[in-house]
Design a protein that fits this description.
Length: about 325
């Protein structure tokens, strides 16, 4: 296979801190490798519409410390249909683009795989999502920053919980994966952590509160992943109140978890993966995701990233039980 001379990069799906650091690494590694690099604006929507922007080394100056994505991102219903992907592939061909690197999660990777299998486009995925739910990599770009952002909020809420002897139910992001809730719950000293992977046992939650009350405990932090219980933290809190007659407060941290300057860990991870993505695609690889496993960069078949389930560390739940005693 001839070495590619022109590649493109886009960001897709939910933004995550570190996407700009990854974009920077892709651009500068491509240039160092003698390839032309184009940025595609607004994800797959921009690909279908042909919103392309020539990039050079200066295009990504002073972005490593910024959150969000300079390439913008969006969802694209048209790209979900075969005719939309055919249009996208034609846009790439017309622009002379021979390969595509996309930063995102499993939805992004499904789109890449479709372009590769249906139209022969050379593609490489870079895992960028705060959920840390992508199989084939120990960490995804943005997870560490999101966890630290949520933790900062929980630390502040704990101050007021202790001052007022209150129970706080704190909702963090995670519709299908509890990795973020586990990380911030353990680090924040939560008494209870509720995640989508384990059915919520209201009797057990109430038991923790009652046992703590018998020991003289007066404040609690209960971390709830948004997908752990129908209706989220508010519904859990109300269900517990119905059983125990307690008063409570609910705090939904929300989209603040997506923003902010990426941590050193996320900047380094993004830079490593951005470089690895370019090395892979210029080296003839396609239909792969670049990830980091046990400290080493690895190439993972794109279908594995959604067909195989990345387990969460449920031992952290057991640790929470011990630590909250």
């Amino acid at each position: 296979m001839a070495r590619l001379r022109h590649i493109a990069v886009l960001a897709s799906g939910g933004d995550s801190p570190g996407m700009n650091a990854a974009t920077r690494a892709v651009v500068r590694t491509a240039i160092a490798g003698g390839a032309q690099i184009t940025g595609i604006m607004r994800g797959y929507s921009g690909l279908v519409a042909g919103e392309f922007r020539a990039l050079d080394a200066r295009s990504v100056s002073n972005v490593i410390q910024t959150g969000g994505t300079i390439l913008k991102t969006s969802r694209c219903e048209e790209f979900l249909r075969p005719e939309g992907r055919a249009k996208a592939a034609a846009r790439l061909r017309d622009a002379g683009i021979e390969g595509l690197i996309a930063i995102g999660g499993d939805g992004t990777f499904r789109g890449l795989h479709a372009l590769a299998s249906e139209h022969g486009v050379a593609v490489i995925g870079v895992p960028g999502t705060i959920d840390n739910d992508v199989f084939g990599t120990d960490a995804t770009i943005g997870f560490d920053t999101a966890a630290n952002t949520a933790l900062e909020s929980i630390d502040k809420i704990r101050d007021t919980a202790a001052s007022h002897d209150r129970i706080f139910f704190i909702e963090v992001m995670g519709r299908r994966c509890g990795a973020l809730a586990l990380a911030v719950g353990v680090a924040g000293g939560a008494e209870v952590i509720l995640v989508p992977e384990v059915p919520v046992d209201l009797a057990s939650v109430c038991g923790v509160l009652e046992e703590g009350r018998r020991r003289g405990k007066t404040s609690y932090i209960i971390v709830v992943a948004e997908g752990a219980y129908e209706g989220g933290a508010q519904a859990v809190a109300q269900a517990v109140k119905d059983r125990l007659g307690i008063s409570y407060r609910v705090s939904v941290i929300g989209h603040i978890q997506r923003g902010g300057s990426p941590t050193a860990f996320d900047r380094t991870l993004a830079t490593r993966l951005g470089r690895a993505a370019v090395d892979a695609i210029l080296g003839g690889e396609t239909d792969r995701m670049v990830g980091v496993t046990c400290g080493e960069v690895a190439l993972v078949p794109l279908p594995d990233t959604w067909e195989k389930k990345k387990p969460v560390d449920l031992d952290l739940l057991k640790l929470t039980t011990i630590m909250s005693s």
